[in-house]
Amino acid sequence: MTHPFHPYSGQCGVCVAKRGNRAGSRWLLRFDDGQICSVPPQWTDAAAPDLEVIAGGGRAVCGLADLLALSEMLAHLMSQKKDTGAKKRKDNYAASVKEKTPQSPWSLR
What we know:
109 residues; alpha+beta; three-stranded antiparallel β-sheet; 3 helices
C-alpha cells in the first residue's frame, strides 16, 4: 500500500479480487491481520507511478485534473447560488415572516 494516508500504508497485502464500479477499478487486498480493504490500484505499487506526485517529490495531495474538476464543481455550485438567491427564498424563510398582532375572537364578529 503506497497511499500515505491509508491506515495500511507501507504494508503488503495480497490481492484477493478485482472489481469495477462507476468510479473505476478496485482491488480487494487482504492484510496480515485478516482485514480486507477495497482500494484503487493507483494506491498500490502495482500501478504506474503518478508523474505529478513524482514531480512534487511526494508532496502532491492531488493532481491537476483533480483541481480542475474541483474548480468546475465550485463554479457550478456558485452559479446555482446566484440563480436561487436569497430574494427567491425569502417567502419561505422563517425570519422573513411578519408577526401578526393577536386579535380577540370577539372583535371579529
